[in-house]
Structures are given as structure tokens and as C-alpha cells.
Amino acid sequence: MSAHPRAAAEQAVEFAVAAGALSAEAYAQDEVDVEIRVYDRAVESLTEAGSHGLGVRAFAGEGRTGYAFGTSFADSDLQELAARAVEIAKSSDPDEHAGLPGDCGAASTEALVSPGFADWSTERKVGLAIAVDDAARTADDRVSQVEQTIYADSRGRVAIANSDGFAGEYEASGAYAYSSAFAGRGDDLMTGLGLGVGRGPDELDPVAIGREAAERAAMLVGARPTTSRKAPVVLDAFTAASFMGIVAGALSGEAVLRGRSPFVGKLGEAVGAAALTVTDDGLYAGGPSTAPFDGEGVAQRRTPLIEAGVVKQLLYDARTAREAGAASTGNGRRGSYRGTPGPGATNIVVDGGAASLEELFAEAGDGLYVTQVVGLHSGVNPVSGVFSVGASGIEIRDGKLAQPVREATIASDLISMLGAVRAVGAERRWVPFGGSILTAPMLIGEMTIAG
Q1: Distance (Å) of CA 106 to CA 27, 109, 166, 280, 330
Q2: Cα 370 vs. chain centroid, distance in angstroms?
């Protein structure tokens, strides 16, 4: 029995080749995930689940591909799994672009497991989650309820092997906690989110997370509709991260190849302001998606997407790179061993500027500070990039925060928005909205605001 992920992956590849595959790859995963839900300072649910399995991707002639996965690392089960993948491949449709990557390898990274991760018992993690919930409830008298508080972590090992001779493995951990608080009463009930992200629970500050949820909710109490106009908009870090996640998805080579991106034909062109530089950095120190290689064994790397407003590169896995006549950027991503790789972002890093949040308000003059958006992922046209989404926040008057706002709408399109970036703030943070995104608040010179 091959109990170790790398050994199991190597054995599965041998079985696939013996079963008739021209080439093959195996992806093995062994992970434990914990989720603790707290309500009113008590545990509402606690889940500890393992994700243990292996997927085999087999290639037959003319790029015919088959994929099969299972949860056993026993030799007999791996042999059966590999044979099934080969059988599927032989009956699948041809794909001239399918096949193993031509440039597999592993980059050097920092340690990806929190040093103190193993010291945290379930009881300590429960205590951390309760501390977040308690802080959210007590940080501001205007907080009337906390909808939910969640702590979650994972620690696991990933291994890849293929018939071209590549074999690699790494171990990583991650943890996050968040709380959603309500402030106000009746029609004035407003919500706020507090969030912390790290490699392990020791990197999370429960009081800061809970306090952030309370403060973000309380700052919107008394919100009223705003007036319709075109004006500057300051996106807080959470909202900026949501937009940058959409932008990164639109910079996928697959989206561009399929014509489902506003960046079609924009490679090498200026689409954003000089203040905007965005990078996909799969090796960023402390990045939640940092790893030595991607989901098909290509070394992760730093890929400039937008530099001083100019589109520099797109994100490719091996297949879309072949179709585009390009090279993989180390962005073959997998959700788990149950699925095949596809192009996707790693760590999206937005270069920070020099301005504090207050200085962004001062530069905006009169406008809107947006702290929440609703329906962004469904509200963006994937081809044109046009969006119109619900928003809450605070009016900016004479460079200072004024009246809280709700039931507003902000509208523009992604290209116009990027071109209107006047400044990026200095205070960056990780936000796991639509990926792993490191960004600061952004000042957009003009958006359409509807009351």
C-alpha cells in the first residue's frame, strides 16, 4: 500500500502508462479542514473533515484526455483508477492543445506551514472563535446582534507526479476568522464584516477581528439614500479586493481566448492609470496561495498583469498557453484532487501607494466612500466589463467623512474604472474575496452614483 501522497502519485502514473497511456499525471492530496461556527459566544457547529484522494489524468493519441479520481492510495485501487482514466481518454474527443506541461519544476518558497500550528488544540481554536464573537458584540454599544462568527483552518500535503519525470510535494497551512455584526435597530440595521487571515491561528488577532466587524457596522448606522451624480469614489480594501478579483479573472488567458473578457486585444495596451500596478505573485511571502508549483507541476512565479496601467501578461495553464501560442505562467489551478487544472490566479498583489485613507478622502474632495457592494460577481458583464451594483458607505464632503449612505448604486465598466484610478492607498491587507488578494483602498476619479 502506498500511503504517502507522493509515492501514491508516482505509482498511479506507472499504472496509467502500463495501461496504455501515452503520458499521464497524478495529483494527490491529504488535507484536514476545521470549521467552527459560533453564535452568541457558544459553539453552534464544529466540523473536522479530511480530504484524502488522488486524481489521474491520462492522455491518449490526438490529445484525448481522461480523468478519474478516488480516495484510496492502495496499489490495487490506484491500478484500477489509472486504468479507468486511460479507458476514458481513449473514448474522448481529440484536443490538439491537451497534454502535460513542457516546463515542470518547483520554485523555492518560504515555509508554508505555521510553526505553531500543531500547538493549537480544538479547544484553543474554539476559544479564539468565541473571543472574536465576544469582541464583535462588545466593541460598540450600537451593535445589536452578531449574525455569525466563523473560524476555519486547513493543513495538508499536495503531491504531483507525471510520466515526463517530474515529482514534487509540499505541505501548507492556512487559517482565517471573520465575524458579521449588525448595528442599529429596525430600518437602520446595518452590517459590518471583520476579517483576519494567516498561516495559522497564532497570526489572528480575535479582538481586532471582532472590533472591526462592530466598527464597520456602527459607522453605517443612520444611513440614508444619496443623490445621483458622477463623482469620485474611494473603495475600501474589501471592495477594492472584490473588484481586483474580477479583473484578475478577466485577465485569464482562457477568458480572453473565448472572447469573454473586456481585455480581448488589450495585451500591451494602456488600460489603467499610471498609479495602478497589479501582479499575480505565486511566491509572495505570506501569500495564502504561495506554493512551489501549480496544479499541474509548473513552477509558480511572479507574473506582471498590469504595470503602470499597461496590460503586460495573461494567466495561462499548459493547455490555454498552447492554444494561445504562449507559455504557461504557472497558473494551472485545482480546487482539489476531484478536478482537472484550469487557469486561475494565485496571489493578486496590488502595489500600494503613499496616501493614508484620510488623504484619499481629502484628494476625493466630494464623493462616496464605499465599504460594501452587493451582487458584484453577478453584476459584471463578462464581455464588456460593464457593471452596476448596490453599494453602502459614507458620503465624502470637503475631504471628510459625513453622512452614512445605503441603497446606492455605483456603475461604470472595468476598463474605465482602471483608467480612473487616481491613487492607491498605503495600508494594504489580504482579503480572500475571489482569490487571495493583497490591496489597499483605491481612489477612483469618477463613477456614476445613483441614489
Answers
A1: 15, 9, 9, 17, 10
A2: 21
Supply 437's cell numbers. Answer: 488578494
Determine the pLDDT at residue 3: 64
Average pLDDT over residues 238-255: 97
Work out the average pLDDT over 156-168.
Answer: 98
Residue 186 binned pLDDT confidence (cut-offs 50, 70, 90): confident
* Amino acid letter, residue 74: A
Return the beta strands (E) in 163-184 as ranges: 167-183
| Side-chain-facing half-sphere of 336: CA atoms under 13 Å | 13
Yes or no: say if 10 and 157 are a contact pair by the CB < 8 Å rule. no
Amino acid at 34: V
- For 102-142, how does the pLDDT look when each residue is reduced to its tens digit (9 = 90+)? 999 999 999 999 999 999 999 999 999 999 999 999 999 99
**Structure-block grid coordinates of residue 358:** 484620510
Q: What would the mean pLDDT of 272-289 be, rounded to a whole number?
A: 97
**pLDDT over 90, % of the chain:** 96
Q: At what angle do helices 206-218 and 122-138 cross, to 10 degrees?
A: 30
CA–CA distances in Å: residue 314 to residues 4, 310, 375? 35, 12, 26
pLDDT at 2: 45
Q: Specify whether the CB–CB gap between 403 and 426 falls below 8 A.
A: no
> Which residues lie closer than 8 Å to 125 by C-beta, 6 or more apart?
34, 36, 151, 153, 201
The residues pairing with 161 across neighbouring beta strands, listed in sequence order, are 26, 167
* DSSP notation for 280-337: EETT-TT-TT--SB-TTSBBP-EEEEEETTEE---B--HHHHHHHTS---S-EE-SST
Contacts of 242 (CB under 8 A, 6+ apart): 373, 376, 377, 431, 433, 434
- pTM comes to 0.96
| Residue 32 · residue 50 · CB < 8 Å | yes
Query: Residue range 204-220: average pLDDT?
Result: 98
